[in-house]
Amino acid sequence: MREIPVEYRRRRPSLTALRIGVVAGLIAVVIVAVLATSISQLGPGEVAVVYDPITRSFSSPVVGPALFLKFPWQGVIKDFYTIDIVDMTSAPDADYPPITALTRDGVEVSVEISFTYEVDPSKFRSLAMNYPRVNYEENRLIPVMRQVVRDVIAKYTVEELIAKRDAIAREIEEVYRSRIRADRTLEAIVLHEVNLRGIRLPETVKKAIEEKVAAYQRKIAAQYERERILTLANATAQQRILIAEAEARAIEIRAEALRRAVELIMQVSSDPELARLYLLMQALQNTNASPVIIVGGAQPIIGVQSRG
């Protein structure tokens, strides 16, 4: 029996199946890419809205932490809603430089100020619509602060800046708050503290003020010394007047006592000589002398002898 030869041929994949595989792979890659660009993530303290350039619409705010979906052609505008501190000082790590302003008398001063604020997440859509690049701080908050400070400082002289510092700080805060509240594009901004950190004067003005203050202090000291001397002089004069009045009153009292004593002697003895002797003895009590009585004549002789 004769064997019949059999020929085996390797089957090659058809071109159609190959094309289908390539297309399926591309579709899978596209799906993965679409999903990768459609899923967005927000961390804690972040808020975002989705912007559609085709319909020019903004979505409602999404508050993190969160995952959300969007179409690949849509963009995401996000920001932090935690409290932010803005320093406008001369410190190396300050956010912005201090504000230069002119006083009412034409002196240029440097004003250092800081403020804190946060974004209200529920109103972030309005903020994103007005500031899609989230540059509201440098484009609005800072320029408004500079203008408010310059307007307020222009109302005061250099001396008033020093004497009325607290009042100026309150005025800057009140005016700035009212400006921010009145700006509808910033309705999502919640302003917290506004602090006037300091007002730097030019060195020449500073020295002039220091000399003026020193002169004023010397004037006050001299005036106080004059008043002190006058007070002491008036006190001494008043003391002397009181002493003189007391002595005069004492003399009046002693004279009245002597008069009554003499009247009493005359009533009892009717002897003028006895009354005269009594007055002489009273007078000798106030002197540094001792009486000497010489008896032998018709009338005793009374003399005075010094005691020492």
Describe the structure.
With 308 residues, this protein is an alpha+beta fold. The chain folds into three domains: 15-78, no CATH class; 81-201, Tetrahydropterin Synthase, Chain A (2-Layer Sandwich); 234-306, no CATH class. It is 50% helix and 23% strand. The protein has helices at 15-38, 124-130, 136-153, 158-163, 165-182, 203-269, 272-284; strands at 39-42, 46-52, 57-58, 62-63, 66-69, 75-80, 84-88, 99-102, 108-119, 189-200, 289-294, 301-306. The strands form four sheets. Strands 2, 3, 4 and 6 form a four-stranded antiparallel beta sheet that branches. Strand 2 (46-52) and strand 3 (57-58) form a beta hairpin. The longest helix has 67 residues, at 203-269. It is rod-shaped, with a radius of gyration of 53 Å. The termini are far apart. The model has no long low-confidence stretch (mean pLDDT 82).
Structure keywords:
Tetrahydropterin Synthase, Chain A, 4-stranded antiparallel sheet, 308 residues, alpha+beta, 12 strands, 3 domains, 7 helices
What secondary-structure arrangement, pairings included, does this model have?
Layout lengths: L14 H24 E4 L3 E7 L4 E2 L3 E2 L2 E4 L5 E6 L3 E5 L10 E4 L5 E12 L4 H7 L5 H18 L4 H6 L1 H18 L6 E12 L2 H67 L2 H13 L4 E6 L6 E6 L2
Antiparallel strand pairs: 1-5, 2-3, 2-4, 2-6, 7-9, 8-9, 9-10, 11-12
Brief rundown of the structure:
The chain has 308 residues and is α+β, with helices and mostly antiparallel strands.
Helicity level, as a percent range? 40-55%
Distance between the termini: 191 Å
Shape: rod-shaped
Proportion in β-strands: 15-25%
User: What CATH architecture label of the largest domain applies?
Assistant: 2-Layer Sandwich
Largest sheet: 4 strands, antiparallel
Q: CATH topology of the largest domain, anyone?
A: Tetrahydropterin Synthase, Chain A
Runs in which pLDDT lies below 50 for 5 or more consecutive residues are: none
